[in-house]
Amino acid sequence: MMITQLGNIFGDSQVASIISGKELGQQILSELKSEVFAIKKELNISPCLAVILVGDDPASGVYVANKRRTCEEIGIISKAYDLPASTTMKELLKVIHELNNLAEVHGILCQFPLPGGMNEQEAVLAIDPAKDVDGLNPLNVGLLATGQPKFISCTPLGVLEILKRYEVETVGKQVVVLGRSNLVGRPLATLLSQKGWDATVTICHSRTRNLESHVQQADIVIAAIGQPNFVTGEMLKENAVVIDVGINRLPSFDTNKKGKLCGDVDFEAAFQKARLITPVPGGVGPMTIAMLMRNTILAARLQNHSHPIEQKF
Q1: pLDDT band at 252, cuts 50/70/90?
Q2: For the whole model, what pTM was predicted?
Q3: CA–CA separation, 287 vs 282, rounded Å?
Q4: Which of 50, 185, 244, 266 could potentially form a cystine with 179 if both were Cys, beta carbons 3.0 to 4.6 Å apart?
Q5: Which of 67, 131, 237, 273 is catalytic?
Q6: Is 216 an annotated catalytic residue?
Q7: CA 293 to CA 282: how far, in whole Å?
Q8: Catalytic residue selected from 128, 131, 132, 134
Q9: Strands 276-277, 241-244: pairing kind
């Protein structure tokens, strides 16, 4: 596995290993490209992902473009449903129901956030659980909670893949998950506490007392709290593994330029104490898109009663 080692850059003797989610993601996409080819040959179908984008939010537009480009790269058919910001909830639900009934569409993704006034949970509930490649439908969340996951939300799945491929031991380890969102924090904590991963997991959030003391005891810290540079070097245990899920844009003093991207972890300080650490950008982000592709391929196999990709959780 490709690891970048940095030592003495900031005057410290510790050698930190930086996880390249970009390189790992490309490796996985190469594997999935072979899987897509196998499905086409075996089942005479092409995995297909329908992506719904409502409105013109710039960040959402970039994310959707990346997803569609990745589909094309590995041979997955991408169907684009770009709807104006004036779209009503009823109109959105009609599109989702039509896609539910299209046999050639195996996965449906509705890009969030939706424009103001639209109900995201209603959209999630409308998506057929068999096509819910984002893993957000309550049926898929329930399967995950009971140790029978089918579609796992893409960012948690990407984090697990990082831990597995970099051979990070989780059995009996103390894991702190910063953040309790249904998209990242909760599913990650549930998965890591299950058999096979066997970690002791603490979820910390805005109401947690003595939060720093929890983090200082953690062998693995997963930051998904949405606050730039929240985790400092002083908060970390020596040789901790740090997975930074956050992506924040700092203010820019130049009105003609966007602010710098950063995570929830103060990278320069944290990497002096961490054994492994993900950067932002180039860490968890590319893995999220790779896992969306994996879920789409899994959906195509399951809907055609074919043996799914082997995945151990």
Answers
A1: confident
A2: 0.92
A3: 9
A4: 185
A5: 67
A6: no
A7: 18
A8: 134
A9: parallel
The whole-angstrom separation of Cα 291 and Cα 29 is 9
Contact 95/65 with Cβ under 8 angstroms?
no
Tokens of 93: 């639900």
* pLDDT value at 5 more than 60: no
Verify whether residue 134 is a known catalytic residue: yes
Residues in the chain: 313
Whole-number average pLDDT of the chain: 92
Phi, psi of 280 (to 5 degrees): -135, 120
**Separation of alpha carbons 187 and 205, rounded Å:** 15
Rounded to whole angstroms, the Cα distance separating 158 from 247 reads 15
| Contact yes or no for 79/95 (Cβ under 8 A) | no
pLDDT at 2 over 90: no
| Residue 67 amino acid letter | K
Cα-flanking dihedrals φ and ψ of residue 262, to 5°? Answer: -150, 165
Marked catalytic residue, from 111, 237, 244, 273: 111
> E strands along 105-235, which residues?
107-110, 174-178, 200-204, 220-223
d(CA 14, CA 42): 50
